[in-house]
Specification:
The structure holds 2 protein chains of 2 kinds. Chain A has 12 helices and 9 strands. In chain A, the strands form 2 sheets. Chain A has a 5-stranded parallel sheet. In chain B, helix 2 crosses helix 3. Helix content of chain B is 31%, strand content 25%. Chain B contains 5 helices and 8 strands. Chains A and B meet through helix 1 and helix 12 of A and helix 4 and helix 5 of B.
Chain lengths: 328, 170
């Protein structure tokens, strides 16, 4: 899938659909912009007038309270008007129905769609069909990508570990096979020049060609977390337990659950991340989740700043080139 | 324009600090908080802050998120976080910028300040005020008055050795 649809004629972000096809300059720009938005929460009025008069629609074909809430809050902190539309995915699985929905909303002069859909490629499809001034952000599509989640993780890593990704060893633990987040994280870590990216999971939960992405695969947690600086946990979808992919929660925790005891093999200053909500006693024990090395709650706050950054950068597309700007 | 570019900025800053002190005294303000606007305004504010011997740390504003031309020209690619290390409510503030031109930057800065609280008053000090005002905003203290044509652009270079530069932009 070409990443070029994401950029305007000047190579600036217009849609944010996937990390693939972007470059380090754009990712760094997102992180830098997010950094400057963290100050907004210090204001009495937690709002900047940047997107005043713009309309952003959260178009969710798949339920998600947490992601939708942070997108909504991000848009509101930028002073945009926000509309939340939840659509039952089953009634719109055909492309034509999706387009009808889109055209209807476009007629209301929407400036940006934030799209979540159970099918991979849904956000791309919408981006290809929107009017030229409209931006599309992918809030998760099937197993494909969840780029803002990946960027908030990168933002968290940069804040905790500093800007030099080259000296970092990062391990992603959990259901890599079904995770759109893992895919986006691997691409982002590669673009930012991470020293080493590892994935740790049972054989049944690792895609066959994952090594093409330049990651090292481990099937034993104890080996995989040896000397790592960052551990990113993925959420284990409990419905997968019903299939033959996993033996049992108890068994998973025994083999892949992160405990203080197992953490002794990682670096002493290892940072523990998780997109939430945590399955305590399955993905990790509470001592780890609530411990001093966990940054899980910081990640939530960072999610708002990162989404504000992506929204404002995408809205700038089509304007005059940066070099022609003049301060007044 | 070489006469502008040869100006000795530290002497101007001494004059500004003196004028600011007189003004603060006349208004009965003994403990103002100072706020510089990125980037040049912070350099000037830094100098004034030292000359006035203010104890509280300097506040800095990046008004990129408050500009009125965002939809037209988009966002400044290098935005720094604003930082106001004091409570703005009921404080007397001295807002500092390098060049006062259209007045739009100052309007944006005041909008942002009010999102942090309700200051008791705001004074404006600028290194140079030039012709071309588009809003009813004037400086309380200005180190220099420049009469420039609309196509002339003046910029402060720094921060090691502060220097004004005039460019023709046609």
């Amino acid at each position: 899938m070409s990443g070029n649809i994401q950029l305007d004629a000047q190579g600036r972000l217009r849609h944010f659909l996937t990390i693939e096809g972007l470059n380090r300059r754009i990712l760094t720009e997102i992180l830098d912009t997010a950094e400057s938005f963290t100050g907004v929460t210090a204001q009495q009025v937690k709002k900047v007038p940047l997107l005043r008069g713009k309309t952003i629609v959260n178009l969710f074909f798949e339920p998600s309270t947490r992601t939708r809430t942070t997108f909504e809050l991000a848009a509101k902190r930028l002073s945009a008007d926000v509309l939340n539309i939840n659509i039952n995915a089953s009634s719109t699985t055909k492309g034509e129905t999706l387009l009808d929905t889109l055209r209807n909303l476009e007629a209301m002069h929407v400036d940006m769609f934030v799209v979540r859909h159970a099918e991979s490629g849904a956000a791309h499809f919408i981006a290809r069909h929107v009017a030229p001034h409209v931006s599309v952000l992918n809030a998760g599509d099937g197993r494909h990508a969840h780029p803002t989640q990946a960027m908030l993780d990168m933002f968290t890593i940069r804040r905790v570990k500093g800007p030099d990704f080259g000296r970092l060893r990062v391990a992603i633990v959990g259901d890599i096979l079904h995770s759109r987040v893992a895919r986006s994280q691997i691409h982002a870590l590669n673009l930012l020049g991470a020293g080493e990216v590892r994935v740790i999971a049972p054989k049944t939960l690792i895609p066959v060609d994952i090594e093409k992405l330049g990651v090292h695969v481990f099937h034993r947690l104890e080996e995989g977390i040896q000397d790592v600086d960052v551990i990113i946990m993925l959420r284990l979808q409990r419905e997968r337990m019903q299939g033959a992919l996993l033996p049992s929660e108890h068994e998973y925790f025994r083999l892949f659950g992160v405990t203080e005891e197992k953490l002794a093999r990682a670096r002493p200053d290892v940072t523990i991340m998780h997109p939430g909500p945590i399955n305590r006693g399955v993905e990790m024990e509470s001592r780890v989740a609530d411990g001093p090395r966990s940054v899980i709650l910081q990640q939530v706050g960072h999610g708002i700043a990162v989404r504000m950054a992506v929204m404002s950068l995408a809205m700038r597309a089509g304007g005059v080139p940066d070099e022609e700007r003049e301060a007044s | 324009m070489s006469d502008i570019e040869d100006l000795y900025i530290p002497a101007l800053l001494d004059d500004m600090a003196e004028a600011l002190e007189r003004l603060l005294e006349a208004r009965g303000i003994d403990n103002p908080a100072m706020v510089g606007i990125h980037t040049g305004g912070v350099w000037i504010a830094d100098e004034l802050h030292r000359r006035l011997g203010l104890e509280e740390p300097l506040g800095t504003l990046d008004i990129s998120f408050y500009r009125d031309d965002f939809t037209r020209i988009g966002m400044n690619p290098q935005v720094r976080p604003s930082s106001l290390p004091f409570n703005v409510d009921d404080r007397h503030l001295v807002l500092v910028d390098d060049i006062l031109h259209t007045g739009r930057t100052i309007r944006a800065a005041m909008n942002e300040l009010f999102d942090y609280g309700r200051p008791a008053s705001i004074l404006l000090a600028v290194l140079a005020e030039r012709s071309g005002r588009e809003l009813p905003i004037e400086a309380n203290v200005a180190g220099l008055h420049l009469d420039l044509a609309p196509h002339q652009h003046v910029k402060l270079e720094g921060p090691e050795s502060l220097r004004l530069e005039v460019r023709e932009t046609r």
